[in-house]
Amino acid sequence: MAKVSASILACDHTKIGEQVLEAEKAGADIVHIDVMDGVYVENVTFGPQLVADLKKITKLPLSVHMELVRPETFLPMFAKAGADIITFQLDACPNPLHMLREVKKAGIKAGLGIGPSYDVERLRYLLPHIDGLILMSVEPGYGGQPFEESIYEKVKRSVEIMDETGIHVPISIDGGVNTVTGKKLVEAGADILIAGSSVFGADSITDAVKSLKAL
């Protein structure tokens, strides 16, 4: 059974708290919060205040996905706000080992994000320092992109590297996740499905979460 990380980027932003609680009640495992700075990607999204506010109403872990440059400068504010997991994009951070250590020093789980146009071979050197991996099946920050079918092979390769190193961390997939792609992703070795539009854009958030969790 897959875990579901509900991505609030696809929420009705006037009802974020309400919809997060509905997803939690339906069985979602994580709340995924995309933080975009308008530099690394063209979009601008959420800040630490939202993280702090959600922390007050949900028992689910809050996963902050930093799609921004110089993530180390933003770490303290999101740590203080109550993030449980902080993931940054590998290509946006010049000193990833330092950043991973700083996240852990703050008492937070450290995640690594890899975009669709980057390979996962560097993963073997970073695995000892991470608590989770996000593989993106679309480019960060841009809506309406086609799902990159190469993600299935990338998931399988990541599993192979984990087997080779003897270090296993949860593999999450971000972008274009629905019941069709989700089934194939789980079969390839994905552990967590990060779902936005397929959950919060559905007629029923509850039914959408339950359908994904059943994969």
Automatic annotation (TrEMBL):
Annotated PROSITE patterns: RIBUL_P_3_EPIMER_1 (PS01085), RIBUL_P_3_EPIMER_2 (PS01086)
E.C. number(s) listed in UniProt: 5.1.3.1
MF annotations from Gene Ontology: D-ribulose-phosphate 3-epimerase activity
Recorded catalytic activity of this chain's protein: D-ribulose 5-phosphate = D-xylulose 5-phosphate
Cofactor: Co(2+); Zn(2+); Fe(2+); Mn(2+)
Similarity comment: family membership: Belongs to the ribulose-phosphate 3-epimerase family.
Identification of the protein by name: Ribulose-phosphate 3-epimerase
Organism: Dorea ammoniilytica
Lineage: Bacteria, Bacillati, Bacillota, Clostridia, Lachnospirales
